[in-house]
Amino acid sequence: MYLTFHCPKCDCTTQTSELSNVKELRCTSCDWERSFPEGEGSEEHQLNECLRCGNSDLWRQKNFPQWLGLFFVALGAISSSIAWLYYKPILALSILMGFALLDMILYIVMPDVLVCYRCRTKHHSVDVSQHGGFDHELGEKYRQEEIKRKDAEQHSEATA
Ligand SMILES: [Zn+2]
Ligand SMILES: [Zn+2]
Fold this sequence. Notes:
Blueprint: E1 2-6, E2 13-15, E3 24-26, E4 33-35, E5 58-62, H1 66-85, H2 89-109, E6 112-116, E7 122-124, H3 136-159
Helix pairs in contact: 1-2
The structure holds zinc ion (2 copies).
């Protein structure tokens, strides 16, 4: 397993190396670190909480960048329009189908990652079977929590 996380201290994004022999999470840009809770991290592929913030709400998603999917759709649409222009409808259709298929294959072979609702840390190469997809209600709850936290932070800064 390895993680992609935002450091809470300096806000840098760090991608860790394989974590099976490591006892803590460490930021590469500053001195922030967090030790893993007992049993987590060392245990093979089972994950019940976020290793960055300890939150137990995680969702699974494909580690598939959205822009790449859009890029394929756009590329397929453009090249098939060009084929249409040259009166080659069969070619145009095959191009569209080809890109749709490519998109699907990529989606299938891309691995799942677990993402934390609170800090958006991505956990790669873990067992995702216990977790569901993104829940909008839960996502909204964490979004509100984040807004409140920022408000409180600003407030405390203003009064200090
Ligand atoms: Zn940092
Ligand atoms: Zn988290």
